[in-house]
Amino acid sequence: MTLTLPSGTRVELVLGDAPESPRARKPGAPLFSEVLALFDEGVVSIAGKDVRDLTLPDFHVLRAVLMKKRWVAEDEIAFTCANCGADIDARPCEKLEIGPYLDGELDDPELDALDDAAVEIEGLGEISIERRTVRQAEPLFRALARPPFDVTEEVVEAMGIRGATASELAEVDDDAFDDVSDAFLRANYPLRLGAVFFCPKCKARNDVDAPYERELATRARDELAAAATNLPPVEDFAERAHAIADPLLAEIPGEKVELVVDDGTPAVDDGGEPLLGAYLPPYAGDLANPSRPPTVTLYYKTFAAVEADEGPYDWEAELEETIEHELEHHVYYLRGDDPMDAAEREEIAREAVRVLGKKEAARRELGDFASSFGDFFRRAWPLLLIALAAMLLSSSAFDCRN
Known about the structure:
Largest sheet: 3 strands, antiparallel
Radius of gyration: 25 Å
Number of domains: 4
Order of helices and strands: EEHEHEEHEEHHEHHEEHHEEEHHHHHH
Distance between the termini: 23 Å
Shape: globular
Mean pLDDT: 90
Strand content: 5-15%
Structural class: alpha+beta
Strand order of the largest sheet: 1-2-3
Number of strands: 13
Number of helices: 15
């Protein structure tokens, strides 16, 4: 199996005989020792390379791939849907998309970036995280297996922390150390190391770290975000929505658009993203279904979720923009063509290809087999056909040169 790693290194992962059961870490053993044991025993190897000489981001990709193939044990985790609160059980690496690593498509500026920027930590000042190899990080792996976690100078060096000593780190509060931990994780795990789970209840997309077990945990990752505090009660929110919408509605000819503020579970788009607002065109009705006026629905809980995720924001400006956007859909409906709808579907398709990789998306479309992104493919076939054509042209050009 040939893989391109986050550093850009192309490696051949050589797999021997599959273990009878996924290799699990022994009690008290250093973190990730079960992965390193497979290499030490020759069950898994990298042609021409020592796994301990890989940087941590490269190593964690290999670890995730071995978990996906069930050579390394992966604990089932439980989380709640961020949109509706439904309980979901999952093994994240089972859903990890590795096509971009197989095909060398690691050029996404967000998914494939590693955050090496220096950060300001309260009580410490500016620190940075220097990249470490597995060999250099092993003191950290050993320390994490011996609770309580003691931050020694050896551990600071193993983490690659620059700008703070062990004694200085020992003096900071939990929030500051949490920020240090978060900086370490951002420097060593690209966002692509994540899995997408669609809630079986509301169909919302939930992104989960894969592999889930990481050197350090942070409250930002393991605790639910605090409830929104800046948004008004739903009744006041609805009153403000009508104050914005009513003058706009009065300017639109024809049947009056109904404005609804929904404080239940938000609807999601075709990609599983919770909606701020939605537009439904009018329906004349039939024997089975009653008539319906054109309707704009605003989802109060999505506005609240934005604040929970990002902090206080100008929700009134966001509300006004959402209302204008949904009414624009109605105007296009009256004209008989809605280019905004097509653009939104294309954006969803682009996100699917971005996660899967162009070549993997083309292979799946060509093979017509099911995946966690099956809904995307049914709606995104034009973009996927373009990806398929690009792959075939690239292959033809290669054949001609040879």
